[in-house]
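Retry 2 of 3 after timeout on previous attempt. Resubmitting structure tokens to design endpoint.
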């Protein structure tokens, strides 16, 4: 009740969108369009990238954060562009309250994705089977992997391959002499096609029908990948980010203990990248071979990093919290972080006494006894009482501590 009314109150008073980092769904869709434009109109894209960053994403000084390098491969330029978009504050459609991939997630996912085409000597793309292997390396749940495959199919719903083209590709890649002899006979491929469900006799196969051909021919993974590569069933890094935000878990939120740990982390003032990596490893976001790809930009404001880490932890934690324990849900964490940034008019990552006082006093309107509860509840003696919160500057972790404590005594 109090949490909801206070958030509504602040939404009315502080209605301007909080500037945040990361990439939300709409921004990732724009990235996908940028990728398509870059592939087909490289010169035009390079000339207009500054205006695109400023007008479509709201980055005030694009040239300070991204430089297009014509000598670099397309996918390298685009990776650097996406990182710049993720790490920078953006004025347009940017808020911590909106579901997003944080800069840490974007950076890590791009590192993971790009490492695989490099290994396979491919120009920044992966086939469907290669991408599924990446999902396994990221230790997604079975449900998330299934959802990821559904999103892949939705992205390539218009994919078609000619039966004659498939026959030619099979002739090209099939190593067995006997099979090659059969493939040269049109009756063989027609026999295979005739066994498919829902074949329209139009000379084209959908991807689902193609996978049935894979099974009927008992092809090896490498052969399936070659067919996907030659027939265009491929995905780029923007596609990958889109899939990852579409299957983003709700998570189990943040407990009192977790928020207290984040408060301790904030007091280091400069968050060590090793601490960030430790959090990602603790969230089981990759197998051991991919942990070296957890490389992030450092020397960023500790308050912004703390906000992002709290959101990542809330939405990716799989822990089952005790029913009698006060927990901030993932959506509550996003809302509170967004509210904090709206209150912080100085954008210095700390709420001054003047900034926090009207907000905290809003709780007393609905429940005058809350002051006594805050002061007398012995189970939460380590939390800042209401009076102390009213009389000091507050960081974002303390702001969340205030709310989780408030939630626990209602």
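Retry 2 succeeded. Sequence:
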């Amino acid at each position: 009740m109090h949490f909801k009314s206070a958030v509504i109150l602040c939404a009315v008073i502080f209605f301007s969108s909080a500037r945040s980092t990361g990439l939300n769904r709409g921004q990732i869709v724009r990235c996908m369009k940028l990728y398509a434009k870059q592939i087909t109109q490289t010169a035009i894209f390079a000339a207009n990238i500054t205006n695109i960053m400023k007008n479509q994403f709201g980055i005030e000084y694009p040239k300070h954060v991204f430089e297009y390098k014509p000598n670099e491969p397309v996918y390298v330029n685009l990776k650097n562009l996406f990182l710049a978009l993720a790490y920078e504050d953006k004025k347009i459609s940017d808020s911590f309250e909106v579901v997003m991939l944080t800069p840490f997630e974007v950076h890590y996912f791009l590192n993971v994705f790009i490492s695989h085409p490099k290994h396979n000597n491919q120009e920044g793309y992966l086939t469907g089977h290669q991408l599924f292997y990446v999902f396994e390396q990221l230790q997604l749940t079975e449900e998330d992997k299934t959802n990821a495959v559904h999103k892949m199919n939705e992205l390539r719903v218009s994919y078609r391959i000619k039966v004659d083209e498939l026959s030619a590709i099979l002739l090209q890649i099939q190593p067995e002499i006997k099979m090659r002899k059969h493939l040269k006979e049109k009756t063989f491929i027609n026999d295979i096609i005739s066994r498919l469900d829902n074949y329209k006799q139009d000379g084209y196969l959908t991807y689902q029908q193609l996978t049935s051909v894979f099974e009927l021919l008992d092809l090896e993974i490498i052969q399936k990948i070659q067919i996907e590569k030659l027939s265009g069933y491929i995905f780029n890094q923007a596609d990958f980010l889109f899939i990852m935000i579409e299957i983003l878990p709700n998570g189990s939120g943040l407990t009192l203990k977790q928020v207290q740990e984040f408060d301790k982390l904030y007091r280091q003032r400069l968050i060590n990248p090793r601490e960030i990596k430790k959090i990602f490893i603790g969230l089981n976001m990759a197998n051991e071979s991919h942990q070296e790809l957890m490389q992030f930009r450092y020397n960023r404001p500790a308050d912004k990093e703390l906000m992002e880490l709290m959101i990542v932890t809330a939405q990716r934690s799989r822990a089952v919290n005790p029913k009698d324990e006060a927990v901030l849900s993932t959506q509550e964490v996003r809302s509170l972080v967004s509210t904090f940034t709206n209150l912080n008019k100085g954008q210095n990552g700390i709420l001054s006494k003047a900034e926090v006082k009207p907000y905290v006093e809003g709780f007393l309107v609905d429940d005058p006894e809350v002051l006594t509860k805050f002061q007398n509840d012995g189970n939460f003696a380590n939390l800042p009482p209401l009076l102390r919160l009213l009389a000091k500057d507050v960081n974002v972790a303390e702001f969340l501590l205030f709310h989780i404590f408030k939630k626990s005594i209602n």
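Attempt log closed. The chain has a mean pLDDT of 81.
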